[in-house]
Amino acid sequence: MTDARASFGPLTVRQGELASTPLRDAYDLCIAVCSWETRASAAFEQVGDVQGVWEVWSFASGDADKAEAKAACFDRLTSVRNGPLAKIELDGSLKYERNFELIEDYFRSRSQAKGGPLDVLLDMTCLPKKYMLFVLGMALRNEFVRAIDFVYSEGRYRAPVTEEVHGPMTWSRSDGDWASVQVPYLEADNFIPDARGLIVSLGAEISASVPFIERYEPLQIALVSVKDEASRIDPVAIEAERRLLRELETLPITTSVDAALEDVLGVARLCRSFCEDQPDMAVTGLAIGSKPHALGLGLAALAAPNLEIVCRLPSRYLSGDVVATGRTFVYAVEDRFEPR
């Protein structure tokens, strides 16, 4: 991936591979996230011992195997850090309303302690999309941060081996029916729209995505799929999902594009153009695909007044492993109007 830069409203965004994209010399906060996935520590292992206060967010888990894997993840992160490493305990990740309050208080208190907006390094690899998007909107709109550098470690998916999966998507990381979650701070302006459009960031879970799409009864749909998804998920396992995607693409109201997994800016530009072309249309961005594509939706929502972002909430998350491919990406988001 070549490095790239673009502006979205007051924000300047830069993307690139970590190997060729320099980070800041120091941050006010460096935030990692504990997970049972072995790739959870991969990005910070490549980042190394950058200067700043290092903290690790850990979502509560009642499953002994998950808790043990998270403890091992914390140990790996501790070995990276040559200094103190605090753990911030959060409720289970499905209890998002309470956690949103805790996270907002977290950023507010640290910004107040500094006496100004923060520079933050945040590993979004194993941070659920709804939390990553909440942090993006909440921290920037409240001026708790001046800059957030997101890092993301690409993963290769394996089928869960410790839990029974209900349905055909045996490689999926979630199970059960999906509920929708409107992301606070990434809401459209209040107005009565003439019509509704959908931008759908798709992963490989097409069969679970179709009910989400149908409930909105959109007049226009833009599908954004991950290019070369088969390199990360067994293509045989997702062939049925691909057939469903082809059916969606045949609808006369649908346009479809492929974007590289890491291309946040490409997705954000597409979303912004979709919204600008239909200023009287309320647009819902369904962030049900990859985390980088979800970040692209979030950046567009900060610049487009008619775009809102919705995530899915599964019944439970599964503990199958995801290993790092070795590719790590940086997405540096900076408020151009906040002084250094």
Indicate the structural class. Answer: alpha/beta
Number of helices: 8
Strand tally is 16
Percent helix range? 25-40%
Instruction: Please indicate the percent range of residues in DSSP E strands (runs of 2 or more).
Output: 25-35%
**Mean pLDDT, rounded to whole units?**
85
Low-confidence stretches: 160-171
Number of domains: 2
- Rg over CA atoms, rounded to whole Å, is 19 Å
Give, in spatial order, the strands making up the sheet with the most strands: 1-2-16-7-6-3-4-5
CATH topology of the largest domain: Rossmann fold
Helix and strand sequence: EEEHEHEHEHEEEEHEHEHEHEEE
| CATH first level of the largest domain | Alpha Beta
The dominant shape is globular
CA-CA gap between termini: 29 Å
**Which second-level CATH architecture of the largest domain applies?**
3-Layer(aba) Sandwich
Q: Report the major sheet.
A: 8 strands, mixed
Question: How would you characterize the overall build of this protein?
Answer:
The protein has about 350 residues and is of the alpha/beta class. It has two domains: about 5-160 and about 320-335, Rossmann fold; about 175-315, Rossmann fold (3-Layer(aba) Sandwich), CATH 3.40.50. It has eight helices and 16 strands. The chain has helices spanning about 40-45, 65-80, 95-115, 130-140, 205-215, 240-250, 265-275, 290-305; strands at about 5-10, 10-15, 25-35, 50-60, 85-90, 120-125, 145-155, 175, 180, 195-200, 220-225, 255-260, 280-290, 305-315, 315, 320-335. An eight-stranded mixed β-sheet has the order 1-2-16-7-6-3-4-5. Helix 3 packs parallel to helix 4.
